[in-house]
Amino acid sequence: MSELTARLDVMKTYKLFVGGKFPRSESGRVYEVTDSKGQWLANAPLGTRKDTRDAVLAARAAVKGWSGTTAYNRGQVLYRVAEMLQGRREQFAAEVATAENIGGKKALALVDQAIDRWVWYAGWTDKVAQIAGGANPVAGPFFNLSVPEPSGVIGIVAPQTGYGYSLLGLISVIAPVIATGNTVVVALAADAPLPALSLGEVLATSDLPGGVVNLISGRTADIAPTLASHQDVNGLDLTGAIAADGPGAAAALEASAADTLRRVLRPAVDPSALDWTVAPTTDRLLSFLETKTVWHPMGI
Amino acid sequence: MSTVAANAPGAAGGGLQDVAASEASLRRFLHGLPGVDAVGLEARAASLGTRSIKTTAKAYAIDLAISMIDLTTLEGADTVGKVRALCTKARNPDPSDPSAPRVAAICVYPDMVATAKAALEGTAIQVASVATAFPAGRAALPVKLADVADAVAAGADEIDMVIDRGAFLSGRYLSVFEEITAVKEACRRPDGTYAHLKVIFETGELQTYDNVRRASWLAMLAGADFIKTSTGKVAVNATPPVTLLMLEAVRDFKAQTGIQIGVKPAGGIKTTKDAMKYLVMVNETLGDDWLSPEWFRFGASSLLNDLLMQRQKLTTGRYSGPDYVTVD
Amino acid sequence: MAKTNKKAEEQPVQPVQPVRKTGLFEYAPAPESPAAAGDIATSYGHFIGGEFVDSSGSEALKTVNPATEQVLAEFAQGTEQDVDRAVAAARKAFTDWSALPGSERAKYLFRIARIMQERSRELAVLESIDNGKPIRESRDFDVPTAISYFFYYAGWADKLDYAGYGANPRPLGVAGQVIPWNFPLMMLAWKIAPALATGNTVVLKPAETTPLTALRFAEICRQAGLPKGVVNIVTGDGRTGAALTAHPDVNKVAFTGSTPVGRSIAKQIAGTRKKLSLELGGKAANIVFDDAPIDQAVEGIVNGIFFNQGHVCCAGSRLLVQESIQDELLDALKRRMGTLRLGDPLDKNTDIGAINSAAQLARITELTAIGEAEGAERWAPECELPGAGYWFRPTLFTGVSQAHRIARDEVFGPVLSVLTFRTPTEAVEKANNTPFGLSAGVWTEKGSRILWMANQLKAGVVWANTFNKFDPTSPFGGYKESGYGREGGRHGLEAYLDV
Questions:
Q1: I want to staple B45 with a disulfide (CB 3.0 to 4.6 A). Which of B240, C2, C309, C487 is the partner?
Q2: A12 inside 8 A of chain C by CB
Q3: Residue B173 lies in a domain
Q4: What CATH number corresponds to the domain at position A80?
């Protein structure tokens, strides 16, 4: 049998995920994604500053609807993501295995954990307000209530290191932020964008409104500063910033965010020590919330 | 002293003539008045209560307060002797100091009006009579009107009526309105002048400030010359916030109609310090126009002696004691 | 006795403009005694390691009574060496202080609160003299509120396990705190009480126009037997503040003040591990609907903008009034403004005291001049201004649009801009149309609308049918460029814990 008689695979064209759609980069450019041995895997879109700005627009447009929907409904949507992911478990395991250069079994375990993490955060949507807010017993005839509200549009520099970073890590930074009603624009790990771009396909079929999650592959050195300096971004998660472009770049992003006092979640001191399989706490869930306190007199 | 009706029924201009045309229109109007936030009102009253009234201001305010007192005795045990003694006190509040001002009025039950009138002969001190089955007001309208007419006939210069709180609280505003207009008519003397009509709400029974504002407007529209907080006979009488709210009501009524109405807090005002707080409220809410006994009164009995003691302190520099003011 | 009124047909038909006449009942001066402020030294050094010490430098600043322009005292311009010394003292003290059982830390804070209560009159008078605020406010608001924060956070010190930040949450270390001049002692309390309760030690820099109550607080720390170095006070201007926030051995920076300075601090510490909380400027909308409780709304508007001469970051400086009641509300507001008593801050009947400094007066003057130049209509009640000192009449601008600078810039003075709206949606859009997001007010008797508005407004504090209320249990802080982190309540602990 010659090679020519074997069936030819249909290869996937990876695209950005912006506003619920799958655009090519406006630059029309791609870059090569390879495995650990330098073997070509696919071409990923080389997202630009313009792509990033478009994504911020999409994320902003989605804030009202997503933050305005009931927490119960957000939980259902996030759970739906887990269901969709479950159905494509093997595909993701294969992508994670090549992205992180690990065995198939380990990769499968990471995907399972990623699914479970969605489920964990799905359950949080309608409980956050109860742990982060509540009544305050002020010394006067007033009803006083503090409630957490989403900050708005959050720019995320995706994890670039740590065991499980390519999918489990990514989900660990996205899910808690959108669970509370924020929308996100993510600068993906440049060396491992494929599981992330595939995640976009899952999100697109999970009842998640377009624009809530936007995924941009390319050079973080282009994408992250665009996010950090964008006036319509309300917060920055710099988790992958040190690993991507060094501590100086991370500090520059933080300084840039200071222009309009955007909230910043700093990267870990030693990003290489991260392990995404460690059970999360509520930290990330609470990082991009604003506490609003409402007073009203009590009287007849 | 007599007068034509200062606030003649239906006198209210400013587009308010037809407000009481029907139960529905009166209700719509009263419920369309701005709401009152209880906490904010009480905070404002408390804040005005922190004003510090010293030296010359205090001397002025004490004399003003004395001149605004409706010196009151409303007891089942009242006798001719008791009322005469009180009138003597009204004429000459401080036997040791003839410069002490006289009170504005003596306030008694209708059967004591003639006694008081005689005892106050030759002074400008008014005789006020409670009427309309005071304090509960639970009698048939003809009985109430007879009560009023009796007091007026006996020479009362002023009539302090109570509203029908039952009717008010059950939403029968027109009934309350018509009763006030009927009482107003009963205040009319043969010569066409009217006894001054004070309308008591018994604010402690109305409970909410919204009700007090509605009652104020209702009474002013119906012809009240004065609006008065309380009978002094229930658990909660005049309070600073209730009085402040009524001051705001007369201010707004004047702005809309041009007619000036007086205010009388009654019951529970016992000390000079209390009186100062009320005068500060009048001063800062209404200003000079109301700073006279013609437009503001205190319904009180023990207040007078405390004012006199404070007055003695200011004139002599020494703190006075209860043995240095007369007990009547 | 009785007065004859006009008969019905003679009554004017159109509403009579209410004018309040005054003159009969003039309040005599009721001054608090300046001597009650206690002894004010002619010059002050810093409070470092439990002792008052001289600065390493020779530069001295003067603090003046803004109501008289008289110099109250000289104080040191803190140098980098001074800051270094204070941070070292705080670092040294941190080891023992953070190791102390929470129940013991609590008792120190309770002691401080009690001593402040004992000395509350002294603190109030001193605050009014140094700041220019009316004694009525320092006595009834600033000092009691400051004390309440110490009481509140004292109770947290041994209960941190239950604060929702995990078991045994750890302090950060040395906190560098920079506070403004508008509520000197209260801001100190907001900063020091939670920091100490959580086991941090502090270096605090009071504002250069109002250092005196912080220095007096240092004496209170001594009376309370607070271990040396737990609280250090370094005085000076912005240079001292910058040296403190930049100090490499500071673990936590807390700043309350202007947005530009907050921004520069955020930039300065970018890339470090210092934890930052910022409480910055605001341009709050106070929104009045046509079904509002009008008299209380007027009080709320007055309290919202004229409280503390408008030197309040959460001041309701933009009045958004529904068009249908604009005239009625403005008449009532002007009438009320006419009763405000401006003058000697130590007079117990003063409502509006002195502007804190010549510089602030110049800024207010400049911004209001721009307001007029941009076409807004200016109104202020007639009132006499004292000869010496820094004063500004309570002022109202009507005909203001969102584009006017007085509707966008923080004036930080007794200046209210009046804008109108027609629908709730328009009110929300205008209220949120600012880079700030500290506070907002809503006045309506309709409950569901209050909750809808509260939900829509982008502000850290929403006062509904009230304004400018504060409480130690109630988190305070802003959205957007009004800063981040919350002060007060359980939320306020987070800023001082390693979580």
A1: B240
A2: no
A3: yes
A4: 3.40.605.10
- What is the distance between the alpha carbons of residues C205 and C238, in angstroms, rounded to a whole number? 9
**A244 touches A224 (CB < 8 A):** yes
Whether the CB of A135 is below 8 Å from some CB of chain C: the reply is no
Buried b (16+ CB within 10 A) or exposed e, C216-249: bbbebbbebebbbbbbbbbbbeeebbbbbbbbee
Task: Please give the tally of structural domains in chain A.
Answer: 1
B139 and C CB contact within 8 Å: no
In this complex, the chains that touch A, judged by 3 or more CB pairs closer than 8 A, are B, C
Contact flag B39-A300 (C-beta cutoff 8 Å): no
Give the range of the structural domain holding residue B209, as residue numbers without chain letter. 19-324
Contact criterion met (CB < 8 Å) for A298 and B39: yes
Is position B316 within any domain? yes
CB atoms C293 and B61 under 8 Å: no
Work out how many domains chain B is built from and give that number.
Answer: 1
Task: State the residue range of the domain holding A183.
Answer: 43-297
Residue B82 is assigned to a structural domain of this protein: yes
For chain B, 328 residues long, give each residue's pLDDT as a single digit of tens.
334 456 776 566 667 889 999 999 999 999 999 999 999 999 999 999 999 999 999 999 999 999 999 999 999 999 999 999 999 999 999 999 999 999 999 999 999 999 999 999 999 999 999 999 999 999 999 999 999 999 999 999 999 999 999 999 999 999 999 999 999 999 999 999 999 999 999 999 999 999 999 999 999 999 999 999 999 999 999 999 999 999 999 999 999 999 999 999 999 999 999 999 999 999 999 999 999 999 999 999 999 999 999 999 999 988 989 898 988 7
Complex confidence, ipTM: 0.94
Give the integer Cα–Cα distance in Å for A189 and C67.
Answer: 61
Distance from CA of C480 to the nearest CA of A (A): 7
On whether residue A262 sits in a domain, the answer given is yes
Flag whether the pTM goes above 0.90.
yes
- CATH numbers and ranges of domains, chain C: 36-280+481-494 (3.40.605.10), 285-472 (3.40.309.10)
